[in-house]
Design brief:
Mean pLDDT: 80
Distance between the termini: 116 Å
Radius of gyration: 31 Å
Number of helices: 21
Number of domains: 4
CATH superfamily of the largest domain: P-loop containing nucleotide triphosphate hydrolases
CATH architecture of the largest domain: 3-Layer(aba) Sandwich
Structural class: alpha/beta
Helix content: 25-40%
CATH topology of the largest domain: Rossmann fold
Strand content: 5-15%
Largest sheet: 7 strands, parallel
Low-confidence stretches: 1-6, 460-477, 560-572, 583-600
CATH class of the largest domain: Alpha Beta
Length: 600
């Protein structure tokens, strides 16, 4: 495996622990990536590090190199496993399992024992593994906190903690879990924080959990990933799915990943592609771990060519042959765009990233690209003519590259030529090959002027230097309308339970909900323009939300809460209202009636 950098592995071996250097050489690593090379800097010593690096730049190997001296010191291998010495925290199960797999071979010569603690796996097996002892623990925030709370995970001996994909963990609402976990570790530990971007929230987290951290930036903030070609594919609003199908047919990629916003969209698009003859699998948060593992293995061994996934489910996955990423829905922010696209163009391989953009969403797509400091080629979706031309080239290449008949085939080939003739044989081969390809969708071409460049997109003033947006764009965002709900990170808000609550409160479906952005004390979300008025009316109806939760249009002032009346008097007894006069209460008087009694 050759990684893109001008620094050969041999020149950096002296700065890498010998056990790791031999493992890298045996694996075929003859060069280091920029982030891996940065971690060999001996000047960092045992300092805390705040590292920003592109997705797919070899960060797992990088922090493996960085923490080796801290964990091993001058020893060549670990002592008997007891309480863990190192902790790696990842946002998702797939990424945690992938990190464990990488560290297994990198640290193989050190006789390391690595335990995983991830949601969706049998917690009893994890407790047994921790009880037997481990040198390293790799896990997700929620499961790690659970083990600490139950006394199964002892962090008293921890020397180094790594937060991988820290920006994603904040986006998923794991701030409280992270602070709890790090609070249970020794203060003298070494903390390494890795993130694709270092926006305001990451900088604040670093101040809280690190001490005098050294900032390490391995790529310039304006540098575009050189191995990824970005395409902005404009389509008519009702032809988005047709464009996705034709994009997959035109690319002839060995492995493609299609991103959708919601689980429902994943299910729908997966069913559509299966019906069209694609070998496809799906990934979403509702799937069991075994189902997700089987889906990924199908992609790795070539049984499936297309994977349709949500952002969270596909976080951190590594598909070696992936050369195409398709954004079926326009990414809501630059971080999502970069993380999705970073699944391809990894370790020196080339990749293509296609944004399927309805005409009415062009402005939103260009703003996200501008915030991510990316440039994309504007093009139309491939039509039937272009795809059939691709088919012909593939068929011709397959025929020309076929080997000549061997001894066992020569006699039958001669008989075919004699009885059928070259033209009939070629025609039969052509028809057979065409029948094996799905039929492309017919698209109405866009006018040429629609594809003309409109100049660079205007970046909103509210965007900070790292591409994150502090305030919503407002109702002028391509017809969408922003609302707020009074739940944020402090209330452990998570899109998994927010989305159903948002939909039920206003009588809309998941397709009508756009971006969801979780802040500290509230969450902002977008409702499609054609549903916004009805949504605003519905949320004002009594009983649309649980008590204490409020949804309102963004920017609407919150009502000042009235001071609560005391439930009890100073003596601890509930107050009693003064009794109303009998007549006022409409009840018969307790006094004797003046009405004369009926005689005998």
């Amino acid at each position: 495996m050759t990684l893109k950098t001008d620094t050969p592995l041999a020149s950096s071996t002296a700065a890498i622990h010998p056990a790791l250097a031999s493992a890298l050489a045996a694996k075929g690593y003859d060069q280091l990536t920029p982030v891996q090379l940065a971690m060999t800097n001996e000047e960092y010593g045992d300092a805390d590090l705040l590292v920003s690096a592109q997705t797919g730049s070899g960060k797992t190997i990088a922090f493996g190199i960085a923490i080796a001296p801290t964990l091993l010191g001058g020893a060549t291998c670990f002592d008997t496993a007891a309480a863990p010495l190192g902790l790696i925290i990842a946002p998702t199960r797939e990424l945690a399992i992938q990190v464990k797999r990488e560290l297994d071979w990198v640290y193989a010569a050190t006789q390391v024992r690595i335990a995983t603690c991830v949601g969706g796996m049998d917690i009893r097996n994890e407790r047994r593994a921790l009880k037997q002892g481990a040198h390293l623990v790799v896990g997700t925030p929620g499961r790690l906190r659970d083990h600490i709370t139950r006394g199964a995970l002892d962090l008293s001996a921890i020397r180094a903690v790594v937060l991988d994909e820290a920006d994603e963990m904040l986006d998923l609402g794991f701030r409280d879990d992270l602070e709890f976990i790090l609070g249970a570790a020794p203060k003298e530990r070494r903390t390494l924080l890795f993130s694709a971007t270092v926006r305001h929230g990451i900088a604040e987290l670093a101040k809280r959990v690190q001490t005098n951290a050294v900032r390490v930036a391995t790529t310039a903030p304006t540098e575009q990933h050189a191995d990824i070609e970005y395409q902005l594919m404009l389509v008519r609003r009702h032809e988005r799915e047709h464009a996705i199908i034709n994009t997959l047919l035109e690319s002839n990629s060995k492995s493609a990943l299609v991103f959708c916003h919601t689980r429902e969209a994943v299910r729908h698009l997966t069913a559509r592609l299966v019906n069209r003859g694609f070998s496809v699998v799906s990934l979403s948060g509702e799937m069991a771990q075994s189902e997700r593992s089987n889906a990924l293995q199908s992609m790795r061994d070539g049984r499936a060519r297309v994977c349709v996934a949500t952002d969270v489910a596909a976080r951190g996955i590594d598909l070696p042959s992936l050369d195409l990423v398709v954004h079926a829905d326009v990414p809501s922010n630059p971080e999502t765009l970069l993380h999705r696209s970073g699944r391809t163009g990894r370790a020196g391989r080339k990749g293509i990233c296609v944004l399927i953009v309805p005409e009415n969403r062009r402005g939103a797509a260009q703003r996200v690209l501008a915030l991510a400091k990316l440039t994309a080629t504007v093009r139309s979706a491939p039509g039937i003519t272009e795809i059939e031309e691709c088919y012909r080239r593939q068929i011709l290449d397959a025929a020309v590259s076929a080997e000549l008949p061997d001894d066992a085939e020569t006699e039958f080939v001669a008989e075919l030529l004699e009885r059928a003739g070259p033209q009939r044989i070629a025609a039969a081969f052509l028809r057979q090959q065409l029948a094996a390809h799905p039929v492309p969708e017919e698209l109405v071409p866009l006018p040429a002027e629609a594809l003309q460049s409109r100049g660079p997109a205007r970046v909103p003033r509210s965007a900070d230097n790292h591409g994150s947006r502090r305030e919503p764009r407002g109702p002028d965002m391509e017809g969408g309308v922003w609302f707020t709900i009074s739940l944020g990170r402090r209330q452990r808000a998570d899109p998994k339970f927010l989305l159903p609550m948002i939909c039920n409160a206003g009588g809309v479906t998941k397709r009508d909900v756009g971006a969801i952005r979780i802040d500290d004390t509230e969450t902002r979300f977008e409702i499609s323009g054609d549903k916004a008025a009805g949504y605003a009316k519905q949320i004002r109806q009594p009983g649309s939300l649980e008590k204490g939760i409020r949804i309102a249009p963004a920017g609407e002032a919150r009502p000042t809460p009235r001071p609560a009346k005391p439930k009890f008097k100073p003596d601890g007894k509930p107050p009693r209202k003064p009794a109303a006069p009998d007549k006022a209460r409409g009840k018969p008087s307790k006094h004797k009636s003046s009405k004369p009694k009926r005689p005998g």
